[in-house]
Design a protein that fits this description.
Structural class: alpha/beta
Strand content: 5-15%
Number of helices: 8
Order of helices and strands: HEEHEHEHEHEHEHH
Radius of gyration: 28 Å
Distance between the termini: 74 Å
């Protein structure tokens, strides 16, 4: 009886040591797997994806642009928080099931936020479809690319702020073109209505309007991101 109690005690101590090690590894951002032999805990295997330095830079750039960054992952809370702290993300959703990612997007939208979802896996497709803008990583699954509104070339997350900045410049360019088109017509139509505009002048003005709009749009080719 005493021998049995000692064996049980030693097994419990062994498990406590393993559990402590497991927590320590998870806090380092590693995903832990337990190995058992004949139903007994025999060891721990820890794996981890290396966080690219460019990812941290991308997060910092997005925050400087005034964009809140959230992370939704299926990893456990400790691992998720470790990775989030490493790259500078304050808002973390951990142990998230695939269908819950879309619910998180909907929850943020109900708070009045416009949500851009970035993902690369099959499980990300529902959230990509639910978001205001879905961004798929070009190296990800085909279903994610098909579902998303925007596909980022390569796996560099620095393309995310670049895509946002380019879209902002594009919208600014569109508004400029609409303004000048409206400006030309506002002046030209009343003048033509009073018979003060010769046909050849009207044609030249229309051509100039089209050329100026196209030339303004072509400036986007020189944008440095």
């Amino acid at each position: 009886m005493i021998f049995f109690i000692i064996i049980v005690f030693l097994c419990q101590v062994h498990f406590v040591v393993k559990s402590h090690k497991m927590v320590e590894l998870e806090k380092q951002g590693k995903t832990v797997m337990l190995v058992a032999i004949d139903g007994q805990l025999a060891g721990i295997i820890a794996v981890a994806d290396t966080v690219k330095e460019s990812s941290k830079e991308a997060i910092q750039t997005l925050k400087q642009m005034g964009i809140d960054v959230y992370m939704a992952t299926g990893d456990n809370q400790r691992t998720a928080e470790a990775i989030a702290n490493e790259v500078g993300i304050e808002h973390v959703y951990a142990e998230v099931l695939p269908e819950d990612k879309a619910n998180i997007v909907e929850e943020l939208q109900k708070q009045g936020k416009r949500v851009a979802m970035v993902g690369d896996g099959i499980n990300d497709a529902p959230a990509l479809a639910k978001a205001d803008i879905g961004m798929a990583i070009g190296t990800g699954a085909d279903v994610a690319i098909e579902t998303a509104d925007v596909t980022l070339v390569g796996g560099d997350l620095r393309h995310i702020p670049k895509a946002i900045e380019l879209s902002r410049k594009t919208m600014k360019n569109i508004r400029q073109n609409l303004f000048w088109a409206l400006f030309y017509n506002t002046i030209g139509i009343p003048v033509a209505a009073f018979g003060l505009l010769e046909p050849w002048i009207a044609g030249a003005a229309m051509a100039f309007s089209s050329v100026s709009v196209v030339a303004n749009a072509l400036r986007l080719k020189r944008v440095k991101l």
